[in-house]
Amino acid sequence: QVQLVESGGGLVQAGGSLRLSCAASGRTFSSYNMGWFRQAPGKEREFVATISGGGSSTTYADSVKGRFTISRDNAKNMVYLQMNSLKPEDTAVYYCAAGRRLTAMTFGICDYWGRGTQVTVSS
Fold it and tell me: I need a labelling partner for 94 at 20 to 30 A (CA). Which of 26, 78, 82, 87 fits?
């Protein structure tokens, strides 16, 4: 069982930056692939990024590629999402997730989910 808690959301102006953090419980954090997803009002949950258990492989949605960076610190049981050049369309609740199947995670199939943190980008 893994518990995930996101933090770092807030209100920023377009063009600004935020770094989201996700704290994970458990002793087997490094065995999980991690990901970030987001859901805007009235929209379905959207894949943002994934990172493999060891941190050597990352995948990004086209919409955030070049602007967002996912990273992890297994010693601290933490995963991060650095978001730069934010756009109003990035406004959403951002969710941290953990999963055993990396490919499946790109389709939103994950084993554990955090409760989300709100990111609002003003124009």
Answer: 26
Rounded-to-integer distance, Cα 25 and Cα 48, Å: 22
For residue 68, what are the contacts with CB-CB under 8 A and spacing of at least 6? 36, 48, 49, 60, 81, 82, 83, 84
| Model pLDDT for residues 66-108, shown as the tens digit of each residue | 999 999 999 999 999 999 999 999 999 999 999 999 999 999 9
Supply φ then ψ for residue 26, to 5 degrees: 100, 165
Q: Which residues, at least 6 apart from 62, have a Cβ–Cβ distance to it below 8 Å?
A: none
| Beta-sheet strands, E only, within 2-116 | 4-7, 10-13, 18-24, 33-39, 46-51, 58-60, 68-73, 78-83, 92-99, 112-113
C-alpha triplet 77, 108, 64: angle, nearest 5°? 80
